[in-house]
Write a structure and sequence with these properties.
This protein is globular. The protein is an alpha/beta fold and 307 residues long. Residues 1-5 have low confidence and may be disordered. 42% of the residues lie in helices and 23% in strands. The chain folds into two domains: 3-147, Rossmann fold (3-Layer(aba) Sandwich), CATH 3.40.50.1440; 209-305, Tubulin/FtsZ, C-terminal domain (60s Ribosomal Protein L30, Chain: A, 2-Layer Sandwich), CATH 3.30.1330.
């Protein structure tokens, strides 16, 4: 497939989805189309996406079922919006009506169009109560049955990801950064010509049908690059899965022209040493970024699945 025509869309649904899309746009991540959808007009207007869709339920605090119903009424609009898309990322929380109600409808449209879908959802805090957890669980069941790949961020883990004295926003920023790195690495390997190329079939080989998917990012410089990267990869995990239990692994390296192949080999060996199963499916590729040449930088993005 021609890398120049790979069509990728990111849809942010609800407050969390809009916040993430805005973050991606501010980070100037290109080669993707941004869309946001919300049932709250004020939230929708805060979106920086070129295409922002406000679904008016006529109710201030609608239920998951009401959000789903209004989304189904826009089925044809979503169908036309997604035609020609090759890979679709959906990002939402599932504790509210918007994310849990609308996300499955978008996934149904994508499935009909045979679009490869990667859905990233935030599971609410237990302290948010029974009703919120019930909404989340109902939404998650539908999402799980429709998406090709599922990445779950349990909000409970946010407490453990940053210093307890840090504001919760710091954890959300870390979550946005990791998801951004994961999406950017997939977009890069699908749209840029690398030293060792990965195509959509490779991505699907790792992510199709994946659950408990995680993203790990490490970067290092010069002679200490390998040690630094492996140390970062082993740090606390923000996602529901565990890298130690991985069955399928995709590794994307971004580096300059002068990066020693021995460093790449050591990082791959270090990652496989962390993983319990020694018969994992492993796919890796290298993207050359000339700006990494000056300080001999290597960035490693790992996406793995337990299934």
């Amino acid at each position: 497939m021609n890398k120049d025509i790979m069509k990728t869309k990111i849809i942010g649904i609800g407050g969390m989805g809009i916040n993430f899309v805005n973050y991606m746009i501010k980070e100037k991540i290109k080669k993707v189309e941004y869309i946001t959808i919300d049932t709250n007009f004020k939230n929708s207007e805060s979106s920086l996406a070129n295409q922002k869709i406000f679904l008016d339920t006529k109710i201030i605090n609608c239920t998951r079922e009401q959000a789903e119903r209004i989304a189904f009424q826009c089925y044809d609009q979503f169908y036309n919006l997604l035609k020609g898309t090759k890979i679709l990322f959906l990002i939402s929380g599932v504790g509210g009506a918007t994310g849990s109600g609308i996300t499955p409808v978008i996934l149904e449209v994508a499935k009909k169009l045979q679009i490869f879908t990667i859905t990233i959802v935030a599971r609410p805090f237990f302290l948010e109560g029974f009703d919120v957890m019930k909404t989340a669980n109902n939404g998650m069941k539908k999402i799980d049955s429709l998406t090709d790949s599922l990445i779950i961020i349990p909000n409970e883990k946010l407490y453990n990801y940053v210093d307890k004295k840090e504001p919760l926003n710091s954890a959300y920023w870390q979550a946005n950064m990791l998801i951004k790195e994961g999406i950017e690495s997939i977009v890069s390997i699908l749209t840029e010509v690398g030293l060792m190329n990965i195509d959509l079939l490779d991505v699907r080989a790792v992510l199709d049908g994946s659950r408990d998917t995680i993203i790990r990012v490490g970067e290092g410089f010069g002679e200490t690059a390998v040690k630094s990267i492996l140390s970062q990869i082993e740090k606390k995990n923000l996602f529901e899965g565990q890298i130690q239990d991985a069955k399928r692994v995709l590794i994307s390296f971004i580096t300059g022209n002068e990066a020693p192949l021995s460093d790449i080999q050591e990082i791959i060996q270090g990652v496989t040493d962390i993983i319990k199963d020694k018969n994992i499916k492993l796919i890796w590729g290298i993207i050359i970024n000339p700006s990494y040449e000056f300080n001999k930088k290597i960035k490693t993005v790992i996406i793995s699945s337990e299934q």
